[in-house]
Design a protein that fits this description.
CATH class of chain A: Mainly Alpha
Radius of gyration of chain C: 25 Å
CATH architecture of chain A: Orthogonal Bundle
Number of strands of chain C: 19
Number of domains of chain A: 1
Chains: A mainly alpha (184), B mainly alpha (275), C alpha/beta (575)
Strand content of chain C: 15-25%
Low-confidence stretches of chain C: none
CATH topology of chain A: Arp2/3 complex 21 kDa subunit ARPC3
Largest sheet of chain C: 6 strands, mixed
Mean pLDDT of chain C: 91
Strand content of chain A: under 5%
Oligomer: heterotrimer
Largest sheet of chain A: 2 strands, antiparallel
Number of domains of chain C: 3
Helix content of chain A: over 70%
Largest interface: A-B, 58 and 70 residues
Shape of chain C: globular
CATH superfamily of the largest domain in chain C: P-loop containing nucleotide triphosphate hydrolases
Structural class of chain C: alpha/beta
CATH topology of the largest domain in chain C: Rossmann fold
Distance between the termini of chain C: 54 Å
CATH architecture of the largest domain in chain C: 3-Layer(aba) Sandwich
Mean pLDDT of chain A: 88
Chain lengths: 184, 275, 575
């Protein structure tokens, strides 16, 4: 696990949050009713996987709170924290994915990344978010679990596809390319 | 790009308060509003919020567009609550006074209406506070004052960098989106679900990679100018806490204590007019 | 006096690389000197800069042999923070260096990190802001400022530290010519007033020499190949050998068959002693051929009375009209923010004009969607990194066809054909990440060409490129223009580009079209050059100072000669 916190991490939080906020309004509707994919979640997962749990967690928290406040004028705290949870959990295993070292791309690493992201989303959207909704806002149990389930599905899809692609794509930049030959 | 809420310079005593004071107020106010479901407390908070909103001289133009969006969201949420749980009110207040029947399990009860009214009021206690916080707080000064109340300057600075680069990232996003659209890659429209994800990734890829480069450049630039040299740093935009700041913080804390005392005086966070 | 910078038998190898990037560097700079460092991309000049400001070895690790002393001390002992007190670096990327939310905060950044009390900061920031003329902008956010202003803030931001050495990393790369001139003048003034040692890394030699420098150091393949005065360097042939562009007036004098003597002070055209060159130049002018008139072709892109504004009452573009013929190579020039990009945005359909028409082959394109226009008018962004979204070269070039549902066989055939045109066919199965910047640029052009557009619009196609890459990209564009008849429009502030490669320049200033003429005429017209923040070409001054009565014709003949010369040289190289 990586707990280094230097200038690069500070900047990664700043620019990562800016990215997250800028992508707030980009949503892809899905065939599942009431479920939108949020590309910003994939970006956050990617940053967490590259820079670790602190960057992932704070980008999730700060990005969501700031994005909500700037675009929607209200902060729905029970959904802010789960984003942080996702970033934190994915980031815990940053060293294992070895994205910057060019080690990400094998089936094994992709499966590992996706197992972690599914677990983190389960914790966030099936446990944390509904509980906070009930505790903070006293919302009906059936409603909050239904909402949580939709968010869970949406996020594992977008992180599973776009997040994985981003990790593989960025990792390939760091990979050695000495085996390449020109063809006629 | 959609209009977003932003700081506007004005000279009112609210603007002159330190960012920390406003943050403390904002967080405690939100927390109070979260915890209480006491209609009387909520009503007082709404009244207060509106007064503050008025004093801060915030104009409708600054917040109107965002407000309309919140209203839409509010209506959706209130409807969803009813659809999922038409008897949440009964569940909370213990009685069931049917006003009229709609269909199936859906009765409109007094208790449900009252519960949903409380949900709506809760929104209204927080919205003016968020607006006030965003449009009256100078972001630079805010980062400085976060550090002054003991939060690591790294967090304050990360926040400041985020605000600094949001417009740049948005501009870059628009540029990339345009160029990709001209190549035929559209994010909206009638494309199928899978191709929409693909198309979105065509725009996000370049954006991410240029942002990763930017992270390198910015951290080099900061390092070259001595960032992180000492355990502390000073702030150009720092503002010392003044009498008014202490008064506001004291008021907020006292208000919160009273509000929660009133709320929980009957052993529950709900005010129950039905018994 | 002790040198402030002293390299002795210095070599450096990056950890990840097999070969050293810098070899046997011996270089001394005295306090208060002003030194220009030139060299092609990949020559090691940026690494040299990193050694001086401490990024090597603190951020970029590797093996060092030999010694380096900055201010008499070893950088390794001072640490990066210690180094930042001695050397102030102004980076090329002004947006990357502008970290503060406002000008004042950005200037104060180094002071804040040094825990300077607030009162003192106010004073110091005011003082430095005054020096670089940004006092009125202290409360501004970076988004409200031009590139030149941001650069001056960057200068102020390192000068607050009272550094002994100011290091400029390609300060001219992102500026229009007039703003670049101002930046060089500002640097000169700082050196004169504060006796600061100045190092400028730049490959736009002619622009960088707008003010005197004491020495020019030429770096090539990791070694210092020349370290001499500007007069000596310009008289010799080292620049040409290293692939660095000489000032145009120097090239012109050499074309006339003269050997330049350092004693004539060729550093500035304004003060150069031209006595012995006048007659040969006049003779050359008389014998050189002018531009051959091109044949008239049909109109391909016509803009009629175009207006655009975001907010009513504050127009960005007004009454723009021009007619571009098939197969032309045209440049759109003007100062940063004059509306050039808005114009290309309107042509591509990202924005709708407030008034006026855009015609393609005589037909109004208003009803066409962005995607439909994209098939006929291709847009290439400034940086290939803003366009490339697929890891593999083939997929990237195929993308535009794939989303249009072109059958797979046809995609394959068209992509291969395009890759051959672009010289990328041998790399077709490579990942994009394995390519150089210039090759990536070709990939981004290929990904547009594959759709067979009639018109290609390129935004700053050569920004930040050294002479060799610049020539490579431009020759490639010329080839596709000549061989395939594709009309090419370039938005640029590179005057060499417009002069050498385009037949026509459309000049926009403050939202108005102020000229539509040959580049040679535009760049020899002081009024237009001033209005559009261009810089009149040194060929003009050369002609005037040699009493040649038609300076714009002189420039014209020079260009014609250059083009033919270049073709001859290439043929020789091929044969």
């Amino acid at each position: 696990m990586k707990l280094k916190f230097g200038i690069k991490e500070v900047v990664a939080i700043g620019i990562g949050t800016a990215l997250f906020v800028a992508l707030t309004q980009i949503q892809i509707p899905t065939p599942i009713p009431n479920t939108y994919l949020q590309p910003r979640m994939a970006v956050m997962a990617f940053l967490a996987a590259v820079f670790g749990p602190v960057v992932g967690g704070i980008v999730g928290l700060l990005g969501h709170a700031l994005g909500d406040a700037l675009f929607y004028g209200s902060v729905w705290w029970s959904w802010v924290f789960p984003d942080g949870v996702v970033g934190l959990i994915i980031g815990l295993f940053a060293a294992k994915y070895a994205i910057r070292e060019g080690g990400f791309g094998s089936t094994k690493s992709i499966v590992f990344f996706n197992v972690i992201q599914v677990v983190s989303n389960a914790v966030a959207w099936i446990v944390v978010a509904p509980l906070l909704d009930i505790i903070i806002y006293a919302e009906p149990v059936s409603k909050v679990f239904a909402q949580g389930a939709f968010a869970f599905v949406g996020n594992i899809i977008i992180i599973g596809i776009l997040g994985t692609l981003l990790c593989v794509g960025y990792s390939s930049i760091g990979a050695k390319s000495s085996s390449l030959t020109k063809e006629d | 790009m959609a209009k977003i809420l932003s700081y506007e310079e004005k000279d009112t005593w609210i603007h002159r308060l330190s960012g920390v004071t406003k943050l403390v107020f904002f967080l405690l106010w939100c927390l109070t509003s979260m915890l209480t479901y006491d209609t009387r407390v909520l009503a007082v908070m709404v009244a207060f919020s509106l007064v503050i909103f008025k004093i801060s001289k915030t104009r409708w133009k600054q917040v109107g567009a965002v407000f309309k969006m919140i209203m839409l969201f509010l209506v959706l949420n209130v409807t969803a609550i009813f659809l999922f749980s038409p008897d949440q009110g009964t569940h909370i207040y213990g009685t069931r006074t049917v006003l009229f029947h709609i269909a199936g399990p859906y009765d409109v009860t007094k208790e449900q209406l009252f519960y949903e009214l409380n949900v709506i009021i809760k929104y209204f206690t927080v919205i003016p506070a968020v607006f006030m916080f965003l449009v009256t707080t100078n972001p630079s000064e805010f980062a400085a004052s976060m550090n002054k109340v003991g939060i690591s300057y790294n967090v304050g600075y990360a926040f400041s960098i985020a605000l600094r680069y949001i417009p740049d990232v948005q501009g870059e996003f628009t540029k990339i989106k345009h160029a990709q659209e001209a190549r035929g890659i559209e994010m909206s429209g009638k494309a199928s679900f899978i191709s929409r994800i693909k198309n979105t990734s065509s725009i996000i890829f370049p954006l991410i990679f240029s942002s990763m480069d930017r992270i390198d450049t910015v951290s080099n630039a900061m390092e070259l100018r001595g960032y992180g040299k000492h355990k502390k740093r000073t702030w150009y935009m720092e503002r010392k806490l003044q009498r008014n700041d202490y008064l506001v913080i004291a008021f907020t804390v006292v208000f919160m204590v009273i509000a929660l005392a009133v709320t929980y005086s009957n052993g529950s966070r709900f005010y129950n007019p039905f018994v | 006096m002790e040198p402030i910078i002293e390299f002795k038998d210095f070599s450096f190898k990056y950890r990840a690389q097999a070969e050293p990037t810098l070899r046997d560097i011996n270089l001394s700079v005295m306090p208060g000197e002003k030194v220009l460092i030139v060299g092609p991309s990949g020559s090691g000049k940026s690494t040299l800069a990193h050694c001086i400001n401490g990024l090597v070895p603190f951020s970029y690790t590797g093996d060092i042999t030999g010694s380096l002393k900055i201010g008499g001390k070893n950088p390794a002992d001072l640490g990066l923070f210690g180094m930042s007190k001695i050397v102030g670096t102004v980076l090329q990327d002004t947006d990357g260096q502008f970290i503060g939310l406002t000008v004042a905060e950005d200037i104060a950044f180094a002071l804040e990190n040094d825990m300077v009390p607030q009162e003192e900061m106010f004073k110091k920031v005011d003082e430095v802001a005054e020096m670089v003329d940004v006092k009125q902008l202290l409360g501004h956010a970076p988004g409200e400022m031009s590139g030149g202003q941001k650069q001056r803030v960057s200068m102020a931001g390192v000068m607050v530290d009272d550094v002994d050495i100011l290091l400029f990393d390609e300060p001219l790369a992102n500026l229009d010519p007039a703003t670049g001139k101002r930046a060089i003048a500002m640097i000169d003034q700082i050196q004169k007033n504060k006796k600061t040692t100045i190092l400028i890394i730049e490959h736009r030699l002619e622009d960088a020499l707008y003010r005197d420098v004491d020495r020019i150091v030429v770096v090539g393949e990791g070694r210092i190949v020349s370290d001499t005065t500007p007069d000596e360097l310009l008289a010799g042939d080292i620049l040409e050998k290293q692939g660095i562009r000489e000032p145009l007036y120097i090239t012109a004098i050499k074309h006339a068959g003269c050997v330049i003597s350092p004693s004539d002070h060729p550093q500035h055209i304004e003060t150069m002693n031209l006595e012995s060159y006048k007659q040969p130049l006049k003779d050359w002018f008389a014998s050189a051929e002018g531009k051959k008139p091109g044949k008239e072709t049909a109109s391909v892109l016509k803009v009629e009375d175009l207006y655009f504004s975001y907010v009513e009452g504050s127009p960005i573009l007004q009454h723009i009209h021009f007619d571009i013929k098939k197969g032309e190579m045209v440049s759109i020039v003007g100062k940063n923010g004059a509306g050039k990009s808005t114009l290309s945005n309107l042509i591509c359909g990202f924005y709708k004009p407030t008034k006026g028409k855009i015609l393609l082959n005589g037909e109004d394109i208003a009803p066409l969607s962005i995607k439909e226009r994209g098939e006929k008018i291709g847009l290439v962004m400034q940086s290939p990194n803003q366009m490339i979204s697929k890891p593999m070269i083939f997929d990237e070039v195929a993308l535009g066809l794939a989303v249009r549902g072109v059958p797979e066989e046809e995609i394959k055939e068209r992509v291969y054909r395009t890759l051959k045109i672009c010289g990328l066919y041998p790399f077709r199965n490579w990942p994009v990440s394995a390519l150089s910047f210039g090759q990536k640029k070709r990939v981004s052009i290929a990904s547009i060409l594959v759709m067979n557009p009639e018109v290609l619009i390129l935004d700053e196609p050569t920004a930040g490129q050294d002479y060799r890459h610049y020539t490579e990209i431009m020759e490639f564009l010329k080839e596709i223009n000549e061989t395939y008849g594709i009309t090419i429009i370039m938005i640029t502030h590179d005057m060499h580009l417009m002069l050498e490669y385009t037949d026509r320049a459309i000049v926009i200033a403050d939202g108005h079209l102020i000229a539509d003429d040959t580049p040679a005429k535009v760049l020899t017209n002081e009024v237009i050059a001033d209005k559009a923040y261009l810089k009149k070409t040194s060929l003009y001054d050369l002609a005037v100072n040699c009493q040649i009565d038609n300076p714009s014709e002189f420039a014209e003949r020079f260009i014609t000669y250059e083009r033919e010369h270049r073709i001859l040289k290439e043929n020789r190289a091929d044969g």
